[in-house]
Queue: 3 jobs
Job 1
Amino acid sequence: MQKRQSEDQIFGALLGIPNVHPLSVDEDETGLRVEVETTITEAVCPQCGQPAVATGRRAVELDSAKPFRGRPFHLTWQTRGWSCQNPACATGEFFEKADWQFSAG
Ligand SMILES: [Zn+2]
């Protein structure tokens, strides 16, 4: 028996971007447009290691160097913002970073 995969795992494998959850997929004359968020729902401050509180979203637009099914491939990544709650820490707000390099193809 094969292990059952989640839709997020299947989506990530198809598009070559791991640990993301699709928000929307749209295809028009400019190519394929996919909007994603990461599956990460918790974060710690990169400086002090304290748990951070979610603050908001920031859209990051990425264009793939590699076409998808022969068409240009655009990714909108809704990054999560976080705020460090440690008063002794200088970090304040920060945005998540991905361990994948989408535009490098
Ligand atoms: Zn901190």
Job 2
Amino acid sequence: MGLSEALSKPGQLIADMVQITKLDDFLKWGRSYSLWPYPFATACCGIEFMGTACSDMDIARFGAERPSFSPRQADMILVLGTITYKMAPVLRQIYDQLSEPKYVISVGACASSGGMFDTYGVVQGIDRFLPVDIYIPGCPPRPEAIIDGLVKLQEKVKSQGLEERRREVMRKIEEINEKNKPLVVK
Ligand code: SF4
């Protein structure tokens, strides 16, 4: 549309320039494109995440290029690798220190299910003590798969209000506590 044509239709010009949205949707959109990760890397999946953050894959396209090594400045925790029972309380404490609303991505077979380490020392899936939002399959998952998981989390953040989020986390934590109750034989 040329300038003179645009000026002859001021209503159309304003409609093209202005987008109206709800404040809530605007905040959700903003949060979904600034998810700062806390990478909790214990094994080879951590190297794959480093590849994802490098220029070839460029995770900055999704606003998640700023790794935070302080949980208080992170929005999501990526668990990358094997988690042992000795490590689990430390990981849970770090999760508790993340600011709300916070999200968990389980990256790779080891974090999601223990992977090949079906041993007495390895937790068989971090969802035994953390409310996981996204599971990324693979051993190791390729950077494309990690980005796919991130995009799925962005969609979730965009579609979920804070109150709905709070209720989902409470429900998952209750389920975890129920599963972890000590077995009492009477
Ligand atoms: S899932 Fe595979 S690549 Fe990832 S930490 Fe486990 S063994 Fe390593």
Job 3
Amino acid sequence: MTSTQREQNLMNTIEIIMSPAVSHLLEITAKTYSIDELEQCFLDPASSQPDFTSEPAWHDFVDQVSNAWKTNHHIVIRNMPTDNGMSTLLAALSLPARFKTYRGQKIVKHFKMSPWTEELSHTIKEGHFHTDINTAPIPPAATVIHCIKSDPDPKMGVSRVALLTDLINHLEEVGATETRKFLTETQVGMVDDRKHDAWSGLIVENDAIRFHPETLRAAARRLNSQPENLEAHLTQIHESALAVSEPIYLASGDAIFVSNKRALHYRGACTVKFTRFPREFQAREIYVLHLQEEPQWSV
Ligand SMILES: [Fe+2]
């Protein structure tokens, strides 16, 4: 961890430092199974939980996660182990809900930021405040982002989380009533050109948000049905989300657990450090997974 990150003083984000005891439990378990075995196991409703989940240290960790989640809809977890995605998967068991799969039976995805792609998931360009998989009939309820390698420049690749309630309140405070109405009262289309997915409805409904500027823009191009001033609304939403969020620096091993319904998340521009141009470079690397529904902790 660099001094910049260590000195970070988060005001609105709850941080949990994973204890060495919990970290050790994850590392031991990660050595016992392959990631495919664990993914299969967690997708089988009849399978039992791994042994470490009965340990007191794990219960303490789950209590911390549950309290933070209920209070603030997002958490930064520091000092998790880094491996091939196993620890991402195991730590996410602290958010009890079904995992979302992709390509059939995979849960954890790996991304390395690249200067050679336009893909929003791993381009080095600045991202948007957004929710994930926003054109799905039912988007996932939670996103886990686990940083394995931080950006070569510790000031870059910054994350942010804007809570939906803070965003709406800010729009009211600055008199952006039309943009608030755009979010809460205007029927819009969203199109994901890559997945051939489309959805239409209200961006904010039942205290949940689904939002991505690019899927709104794609729908505007495709369906020609967006409200006027789309770009002005998107600019205002970005400015308000920036105003109500704070920079979060993730070092290697740090993770963000974030609601995909009650918050937008964002990643700033990244850098790469070439070791051998053009193909070999150091860059931010993350594991990502999603949970299908709201986590439920049994008391
Ligand atoms: Fe995302």
